[in-house]
Amino acid sequence: MLPAFIISFLLASTAVALPKLASTSKGVIRNIAYDSPLINHPGLAVAKKNRRASLAAQEVGNVQFLHGVASGDPLSDAVIIWTKVTGSDPEIDVTYQLSTNNEFTDNIASGTVSTTADVDFTVKVDVTGVEPATTYFYRFTAGPPTNVTSSIIGRTHTIPTASASLASYKLAVFSCSNMPAGFFNAYGGVVKLDDVDLVLHLGDYIYEYANGAYGDGTALDRIPAPNVQLNSLSDYQTRHAQYKQDQDLMAAHQQFPFVTIWDDHEFEDDSWTGGSEGTDKTNLPQDPTSWNARKLAAMTAYFQYMPIRAALIDGVGKIYRNFPIGDLLDLTMLDTRMSGRDQTDVRNPFTIAEANRTIMGFPQEAWFNKQLSTSQARGAKWRIIAAVAS
Known about the structure:
Elements lengths: L13 E2 L9 E4 L34 E2 L4 E4 L5 E7 L1 E2 L3 E9 L7 E10 L5 E7 L6 E8 L6 E2 L3 E4 L13 E4 L10 H7 L6 E4 L31 H12 L2 H9 L2 E3 L16 H4 L7 H18 L15 E5 L3 E5 L15 H4 L9 H17 L3 E5 L4
Helix pairs in contact: 1-3, 2-5
């Protein structure tokens, strides 16, 4: 595992006086945390229930931002920003602001989204209309007019256009962050580096075990929540929320945009398209209904808690995607777990030797080959392939 922890950032929310919203305000816009994680499967979207009726004759309650902020999947003209709000109201309106400075005197974009328990009170906005290769600052605010509360201020950065001349680009790479096994010092370490352009996380962003199953966090006060083997949507949401409160991970998300992919532990150990360690090693017939429900729960929580877009690749919604970064490089994120991987940890030599076994699935292999050819044809100097190692 790569540990990660260092500088403590203020968790407590603060009341602030806000400048007048810029003329770029979009008003009430869509919270994409409700969207389907697979763009061509709209039926997987979370149905937002109308909860405002229960607010009749009530004042808007106070809120807190206890889970920091995050940004990710930056493009040359758009970037995802994320937060989670904590309050007592069944539906909470959250305003976002994105500015060229951390005093928010030059707001480029702003708007209001609503969130509910249906998405665990997460907020995700795909901010468009931004400039390439530009640093921006963003924050979220909510609460009653007499006590408006602000999140911590995040910093993000868009990528250059594909045609831009680029001499260098600095990536920080993480994977395998298991909370009960130790502190996340590496996340805190990257915060000391002011020249990082983009953070990559190559999977195992969370681990699914109960305490003691793969590391005991008792002595470190890092017992996983909930303290069970993850199975339901609520389980996965709670574990993601706990990780987001880690001080060093929060600091890294606050300072840098992330581009992420999943590995097995966001689901269960040795996951593959049709099962996992828990289902494979029973030597019983697979229960695809049970595994698919668990896989969807894990995928939904991941999409709600991570600053990532739903992907549409060749008509099939997948997490694998490509980022052309100037004329210097193409960053290709591969999914070698859930998109098409055959069964993992197979001992039968005849199965292992089958010519049609695949770790990516044939559609992704074809897409990957096309990305390599396109990158070469456009003259990119480097092709950076990001994939899990196991």
